[in-house]
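Figure 6 in text form: structure in, sequence out.
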């Protein structure tokens, strides 16, 4: 077999294969015999039809049988010979085959690009590191969450007040108040004073008592719907007072309110510091991807996008439109592809690896952080696929630490007050 290779750009390859008749005649005979067993002709026993008769009548079928079963075989032999590893399905063209003559065809495919990483210098990567500035409101919010989790609920008869919850049935009506058959929502909660409800609706349900019926309207975008509220119960949530007794219940390790607040403040700071480091690491990787900016075959990008979209679909994402999903996630797929190409070379160049001992240490640390789930965590990482995933995570961590020495860091202070405002604006938009 003669093989001619053409390099079409950085990662596209073409192979022209020529197989002399003496090399492929054996495979042709196999195809002939296979077809001979299938064909039935009057006057001949199955499998006993004379060769020339079959050749005269079924030559195209014999050739098709040969091509179907042998193009891939010759292609694989050529790949092994040339040491190519295609990343996509090959395109076959220019097929020429005639009995007794040299068999030729062309295959086109892509290979993974070979990347040479540029040399890094100090301060070469410009990276923003967010640093979060918390305030007393963060502490207050956390305390309120603790209070709500220890709320004592009582059923009241004196009419719903602000922050009371109304357990009710909602009967949808037309604008005139006539009930719509089959449009009843049972046992729903409405909170008096809820910011998601209009002022008109909050006013309408304020003072409602068990057994009362009140008409309200609910808005969703430009749509306005009408309901009759049939009150079942009114619940008042009595929040506990924040004192030393309450603190001892929620956190026996601290002695008083001030110590508890300081512990909360430290925990919040730690959480935002972890968030800062995680984002900083991400920014370092992104800066390096942008710095190297490797080329890649479109076929590889499409394969990455296929996998990402499939993962999103399996996760239960509400967006089912495949085209829309591909548009949304294409930047992420390209980013992941570029990082794969870069990290593969960087790991080799810098001899980055992770030992079994390092994996064991990481698992132990995760168990210590979550002692209640230690057995579950340990069992999870005994599974080879999960252990491999953890190994990849640790390698990425080492890559990031290596790259950090070449960063020029700009600190960006972010106030948590601004984050809360953005979250509130987002909630109102949706």
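Output sequence:
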């Amino acid at each position: 077999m003669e093989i001619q290779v053409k390099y079409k750009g950085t990662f596209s390859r073409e192979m022209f294969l020529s197989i002399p008749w003496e090399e492929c005649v054996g495979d042709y005979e196999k195809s002939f015999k296979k077809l001979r067993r299938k064909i039935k002709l009057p006057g001949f026993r199955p499998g006993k039809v004379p060769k020339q008769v079959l050749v005269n009548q079924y030559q195209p079928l014999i050739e098709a049988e040969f091509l179907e079963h042998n193009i891939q075989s010759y292609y694989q032999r050529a790949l092994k010979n040339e040491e190519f590893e295609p990343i996509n399905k090959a395109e076959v063209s220019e097929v020429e085959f005639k009995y007794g003559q040299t068999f030729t065809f062309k295959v086109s495919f892509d290979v993974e690009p070979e990347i040479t990483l540029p040399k890094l210098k100090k301060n070469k990567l410009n990276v923003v590191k967010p640093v979060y500035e918390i305030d007393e409101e963060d502490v207050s919010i956390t305390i309120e969450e603790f209070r709500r989790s220890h709320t004592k609920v009582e059923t009241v008869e004196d009419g719903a007040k602000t922050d009371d919850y109304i357990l009710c049935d909602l009967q949808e009506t037309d604008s005139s108040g006539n009930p719509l058959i089959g449009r009843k929502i049972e046992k729903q909660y409405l909170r008096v004073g809820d910011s998601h409800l209009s002022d008109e609706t909050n006013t309408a349900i304020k003072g409602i008592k068990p057994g009362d019926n009140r008409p309200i309207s609910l808005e969703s975008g430009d749509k306005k719907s009408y309901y009759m509220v049939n009150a079942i119960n009114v619940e008042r949530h009595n929040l506990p007072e924040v004192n030393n007794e309450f603190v001892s219940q929620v956190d026996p390790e601290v002695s008083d309110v001030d110590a508890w607040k300081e512990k909360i403040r430290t925990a919040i700071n730690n959480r935002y510091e972890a968030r800062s480091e995680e984002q900083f690491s991400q920014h370092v990787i992104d800066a390096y991807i942008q710095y190297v900016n490797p080329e890649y075959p479109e076929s590889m990008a499409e394969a990455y996008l296929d996998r990402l979209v499939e993962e999103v679909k399996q996760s239960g994402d509400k967006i089912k439109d495949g085209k829309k999903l591909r548009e949304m996630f294409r930047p992420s797929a390209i980013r992941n592809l570029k990082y794969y190409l870069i990290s593969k070379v960087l790991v080799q160049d810098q001899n980055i690896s992770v030992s079994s001992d390092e994996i064991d240490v990481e698992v132990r640390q995760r168990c210590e952080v979550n002692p209640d789930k230690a057995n579950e965590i340990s069992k999870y990482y005994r599974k080879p696929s999960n252990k491999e995933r953890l190994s990849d995570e640790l390698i990425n961590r080492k890559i990031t630490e290596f790259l950090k020495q070449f960063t020029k860091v700009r600190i960006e202070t972010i106030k948590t007050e601004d984050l809360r405002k953005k979250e509130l604006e987002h909630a109102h938009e949706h």
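Caption detail: Residues 22 and 338 are 46 Å apart (CA to CA).
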